[in-house]
From TrEMBL:
One of its GO terms (molecular function) is DNA binding. It comes from the Bacteria. Keywords: DNA-binding, Transcription, Transcription regulation. It comes from Intestinirhabdus alba. Transmembrane segments: none annotated. This is Helix-turn-helix domain-containing protein. SMART domains: HTH_XRE. InterPro entries: Cro/C1-type_HTH, Lambda_DNA-bd_dom_sf.
Amino acid sequence: MDKTAKATINRDRFIAMPGINCFPERLKIAMEGMTNVALASKCGLSESAVRGYLKGRSYPGIDKIQAIAQACNAPMVWLITGETVAEKDEKIAQMSDSLASVLAVMTQEQRHQLAMAIVQHGISGIFNALQGIEGIAAFAMLPENERARVMRLYSEVKKGASSGDRDNELDNPTHKQTG
């Protein structure tokens, strides 16, 4: 079968994005009456390439999209996705409001401790610590007799691992690393 036969075209590779599918319309808006020839000249493109972009037959590569954005004096992100800076600013404002609400109920000392924890451990370190706290909370929810049993087992394991007696499983020569 020929490589160009329609049966061999992998259409699953196309990723549908609502923003990119409207690129031709945004390009027309960004051009603000500029001719295809003028845009092509400013961007180092052929007029037929610009025509293809406007008809939606093809899409420019990242290097060409940057040149088109500069020539049209339009934001590159808007040309690609249709998302405006205002939409991003709104999302940031919503997150800022949520963060401000959390910080408002904290004392000055708590805010300072949180800032120091972020600096020292990073966000992922804080989340890891919180997961450890969830484990402690789960342990605390166990009935008293199960907590006592877990603590006895822990104590036995700790004694066995720290003592140098011959009964210690880890001291068995079969567990020693050969060198």
